[in-house]
Amino acid sequence: MLNRIVIAAAAIMMTAPLAVAGPIDSACVRSDRARGNAPLCGCIQQVANQTLSRSDQRRAAAFFRDPHQAQEVRMSKSDRDNAFWARYKRFAGAAEAYCR
Fold it and tell me: Which of 45, 74, 80, 93 has the most CB atoms around it within 10 Å of its CB?
């Protein structure tokens, strides 16, 4: 019984970093603003996993490379961009509250 618990705990520990790796995490770690703050970037990715689709995550990750792109989406008149921006704002608010 104890061996099973140890094996399960080891499996969780070994796969935990893989669970947070994603487009937001990768872009965040590479960004100048995060300065390689891996725990913060991992937290933001966890929130993204709960609030954004994978395609929304890829689109939001582009904002780390080109922040002006976020401004263009925010100011867009497109229904698609407006819907994305609403989802992105919910994600950003949740990440800000959760990852302090």
Answer: 45
